[in-house]
Amino acid sequence: MILPILAYNHPNLRIKAEPVGKDYPDLPQLLEDMWETLRKSDGVGLAAPQINKSIKLFIVDARHYESKFPETKNFAKVFINPEIIKMSEETIYYPEGCLSVPGIYEDVDRPKTITINYFDENWQEHTDTYTTIIARIIQHEYDHLDGILFPDRLPMVRKVLIKKKLDNINKGNVNIDYPMIFSNKKKIKQS
Ligand SMILES: [Zn+2]
User: Fold this and answer.
1) Of 41, 89, 106, 158, which shows the fewest CB atoms inside 10 Å?
2) 94 Cα–ligand 1 center, Å
3) What whole-number distance in Å separates Cα of residue 125 and Cα of residue 82?
4) pTM for this entry
5) Residue partners of 98: CB distance under 8 A and separation at least 6
6) Contacts of 135 (CB under 8 A, 6+ apart)
């Protein structure tokens, strides 16, 4: 089932996510729906808060970048209860977009390399180090669990320049082919 994605100023995107319990109801179905939603929206990552579930879970499909970054070959992964435990001091800029912020792509400065501890969909624990594009996608999705969206990380001058576009998203004036929920300034019940 394709799940609607919350748009930029939806207050539920700002809720800090809770850890996922091993008894979380129907996690395999939720993951299947998230993968289907990500495919439909042609995205590279989807965090649970974007589909109105404030739980520490995101998926990454980096295969879009395969021609440019060979390390993304076959990279499609589930991250449950992730904790970034190390970040490099070296940072790099690279353009980012977000399914909750359609039509806007901006350079974001982020640590180049991270080490992350997480569980996969079989509750196997992993500690992995990622760099460049994979590290970036992971950090973007991880931010969603903290209620942070990439425009928050832009310098003030860029924020001012994209304000009109953000206002348009908030009004629902977007050209997308996946379902979205636009803010009514009220928190909606989480299902
Ligand atoms: Zn995003």
Assistant:
1) 89
2) 14
3) 10
4) 0.94
5) 104, 140, 149, 150
6) 110, 111, 112, 113, 114
What is the Å distance from ligand 1's center to 1 Cα? 20
The residue among 148, 46, 120 whose CA lies nearest residue 128 is 120
Over residues 85-109, the pLDDT tens digits come to: 999 999 999 999 999 999 999 999 9
Q: Would residue 96 show up in a list of annotated catalytic residues for this protein?
A: no
Catalytic residue among 66, 71, 125, 141: 141
First to last CA, the chain: 14
Rounded distance from Cα 189 to ligand 1 centre (Å): 21
| Euclidean distance between CA atoms 1 and 37, whole angstroms | 7
What are the backbone angles phi and psi of residue 105, rounded to the nearest 5°? -130, 125
Cα torsion through 159, 163, 165, 169, rounded to 10: 100
